[in-house]
């Protein structure tokens, strides 16, 4: 089986799931993980792990990502004279009594509660080992051929064109088709750091896991609760970036030991209620040419580990804390949106 690369990045697992693999560590979530997840269900209680998708609100936290906009193509109910917004079937046939409503929504797929797909982050890398760098993604898939670049933004959407720039490979639909259901584990960082803006190192995380008796096994999806979701919700769609960007804990993306641990455990996905799972410590350890978001680079680009961001974890984390538990069944398929590099998600936890 020919690989797409002659040289793979140090610390990567390219090829481990096959030359054509587009699922990465999510390959580890299969029937056995579903059974393990189901074994954690005893109350039958469910928690919705999604923020309302119009949160955090505004663009203060990410200038390119806007809140969803809905447009009604049809609105049933009282006809206020705007014919195109209201369609009563009786207009076609007086015997019909039904009225219809239809929407179109413009959604930045990574605005709110989301999955980062494997085509979300690539790197400039010499995968052909010929002295030239190309833009490459997980498992050696290339920009240009496999991941089609976006045209220069014109500010206009062509509804009549279906030639969208898209991820021909590594699109989020692969994850949707696989199904995302299995055992998940909560790591309660908020319990230890409150609202302190702290980049958690490998050594600190190991202490927390030991203290809280949290065990992570191969194939588990791992959630890190930081408390940022509560802060976001409390700001009621008027986010104060200064506060949100300087509050709550997150993983120290520049800690190599932590990154290696993530891939060595065989966890299937990494999830948090913060923006990027990782936090950059005030002074980075990196030198030379390096990734701006090292945990994204390690997980998405090198090891095919999907990232879940801006999830709502507070209610579940507090319930688990009270019950002295950390494991639950997680069901979190993305949209089956072919060619998308990420997706909104409405995850459900069952305990
Ligand atoms: C970036 O593009 C930086 O985003 P995210 O943290 O959502 O992966």
From TrEMBL:
Pfam families, A to Z: Cyclase (PF04199)
Organism superkingdom: Bacteria
GO terms under biological process: L-tryptophan catabolic process to kynurenine
Gene3D superfamilies in the record: Putative cyclase
GO function term, MF aspect, one: arylformamidase activity
InterPro entries: KFase/CYL, KFase_sf
UniProt-recorded name of the protein: Cyclase
């Amino acid at each position: 089986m020919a690989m797409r690369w002659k040289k793979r990045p140090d610390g990567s697992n390219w090829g481990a799931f096959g030359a054509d693999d587009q699922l990465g560590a999510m390959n580890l979530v299969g029937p056995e993980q579903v059974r393990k997840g189901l074994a954690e269900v005893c109350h039958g209680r469910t928690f919705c792990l999604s923020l309302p998708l119009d949160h955090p609100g505004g663009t203060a936290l990410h200038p390119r990502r806007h809140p969803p906009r809905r447009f009604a193509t049809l609105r049933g109910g009282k006809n206020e004279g705007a014919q195109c917004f209201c369609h009563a079937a009786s207009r076609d046939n007086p015997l019909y009594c039904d009225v219809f409503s239809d929407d179109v929504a413009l959604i930045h797929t990574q605005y709110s509660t989301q999955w980062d797909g494997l085509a979300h982050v690539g790197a400039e890398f010499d995968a052909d080992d010929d002295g030239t760098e190309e833009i490459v993604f997980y498992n050696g898939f290339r920009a240009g051929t496999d991941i089609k670049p976006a045209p220069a933004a014109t500010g206009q959407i062509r509804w009549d064109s279906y030639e969208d720039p898209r991820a021909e490979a590594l699109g989020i639909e692969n994850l949707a088709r696989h199904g995302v259901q299995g055992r998940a584990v909560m790591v309660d960082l908020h319990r230890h750091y409150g609202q302190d803006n702290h980049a958690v190192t490998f050594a600190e995380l190991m202490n927390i896991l030991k203290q809280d008796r949290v065990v992570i096994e191969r194939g588990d999806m791992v959630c890190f609760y930081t408390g940022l979701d509560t802060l976001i919700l409390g700001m009621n769609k008027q986010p104060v970036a200064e506060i949100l960007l300087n509050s709550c804990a997150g993983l120290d993306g520049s800690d190599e030991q932590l990154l290696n641990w993530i891939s060595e455990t065989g966890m299937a996905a990494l999830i948090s209620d913060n923006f990027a799972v990782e936090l950059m410590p005030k002074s980075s350890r990196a030198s030379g040419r390096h990734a701006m978001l090292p945990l994204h680079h390690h997980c998405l680009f090198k090891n095919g580990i999907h990232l879940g961001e801006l999830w709502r974890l507070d209610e579940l984390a507090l319930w688990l804390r009270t019950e002295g538990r950390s494991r639950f069944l997680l069901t979190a398929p993305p949209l089956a949106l072919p060619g998308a590099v990420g997706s909104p998600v409405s995850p459900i936890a069952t305990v």
